[in-house]
User: Fold this.
Amino acid sequence: MSTIDVLDTVVSELDAGRRAALCVIVAKRGSTPQPPGTMVCVDELAGMTGTLGGGRVEADVRRQARQLLSAGRSKLITLALDDDLSFADGMICGGQIDVAVAAVLPTDLERYKDALHRIRAGHAVGLPVRVDTGERLVEYRVYIDAEPSLVIVGGGHIGRILAGMTAPLGFRVHVVDDRADYANAERFPPPMQTTVGDMAATLKSWPVDANTYIVIVTRGHRHDEDVLQAVLEAPAKYVGMIGSRSKVKTVFDDLRRDGATEAQLSRVHAPIGLDINSVTPEEISLSIAAQLVSVRRADHHKVVEGPIPVSNGA
Assistant:
């Protein structure tokens, strides 16, 4: 379950006139199941969206969040993952986490709606979370990456399976094909989107940026080559093309003759996907999805900033 799902729940609760508790891991020490920036939402009935790693530690966060929510308070809580409760559930990570539990009120609705809209529009967001440490009021700023855009070129078997796998992983999925029977809302229901048209021409004019992932899985060698040529100069985060090593060599040789540079070709993941000896469309799709996640998570940057003291009245 993604951060988008958590924020979606927060917005839904606030929109209904109810309060919610946003619980965010803001620091860790030692080994922990989830990193800083991981968040969950606890509603007024103690329902939880998202996960902090499971076990009784998560149950303790849920319990304290509901208590704080009832009182309309926010608090920084520290939990050890090697205490008796954690050990009883088999959680022997041995670390500690600091969790900011912030009561969010219906008056905060527009702020959270705006954050959610910006993330879905492809923008990173810094979400402020204020809590009482017991000594002072502090603010943490939680940086949430923009939801990456995944363009799957080819709506056949692998395109359909891959789209279904990656949408729950937090990718904004868009499928492009020149056949209306293969690119439609029945095969790719919302929130997935489809475009029907010449695949190479469509990708040539596509608004590709550094948060765009392109997977080329068309129905044939010539289409794959045309699409790849259309995106070679695009600033995509990831470009992958399906095919055997012999097919990839043929395509690359053709593109070299047309002026493609070694630097451009070296960026292409081909053959596509992690090497898991995949055979079936499902296994091939899994190998591609795993590679997309691997590339996405390779970037390491500071996710949580703080604590920053908050002046009275600020």
Q: What stands out?
A: The radius of gyration is 23 Å.
